[in-house]
Design goal:
Helices cover 70% and strands 0% of the residues. By secondary structure, it is an all-alpha fold.
């Protein structure tokens, strides 16, 4: 496990609601420092990459309203529906342009409190364990596509704050 494995897994959980695939993890982790924890600015730049060309991001978020996007992030990060004050606050920030979806995802996952913080940590740990368990060439190549992503989402769905 690298210095910033958990940070990359955090982004996979937030955006895709699944553990990282080993190749994607290596690619994104390679864009971060190997000897120090990534800064917020470095993670934000990486987070912006997750949705610009990504078919998976487009499938999960394209065409959704800002409130639907925030609710999706709540589902992905915390394993639950957004509460009304959170939904309104985060969606308003997206709508008025004071936050991007990447900023919302990072801030939401890093500022989690109480049960939500426990769920975030557990989901990142589970994602890291899942990806580390893909340790043969067959498993690594097999964890790709819609069916594999669904398997990863099912694995993480066991961890929720609901």
């Amino acid at each position: 496990m690298g210095m910033n494995t958990a940070s990359v897994q955090r982004l996979y959980v937030a955006y895709f609601n699944r553990p990282a695939d080993p190749v994607g993890l290596a690619v994104y982790e390679g864009k971060l420092p190997s000897d120090t924890a990534a800064t917020y600015e470095q993670l934000l730049a990486l987070a912006e990459e997750f949705f610009s060309p990504s078919v998976e991001y487009t499938t999960n978020f394209a065409g959704k309203s800002d409130t639907q996007k925030i609710n999706q992030l709540y589902q992905n990060i915390f394993g639950r529906e957004a509460d009304a004050p959170g939904l309104i606050g985060w969606a308003t920030a997206l709508t008025d342009g004071s936050l991007t979806i990447a900023e919302a995802a990072l801030q939401m996952s890093y500022s989690a409190q109480l049960t939500d913080a426990t769920v975030v940590a557990a989901r990142i740990e589970a994602a890291t364990t899942f990806t580390a368990g893909l340790d043969t060439a067959e498993e690594i190549t097999g964890y790709g596509g819609d069916a594999a992503a669904a398997e990863g989402r099912t694995y993480l769905s066991q961890i929720s704050g609901a």
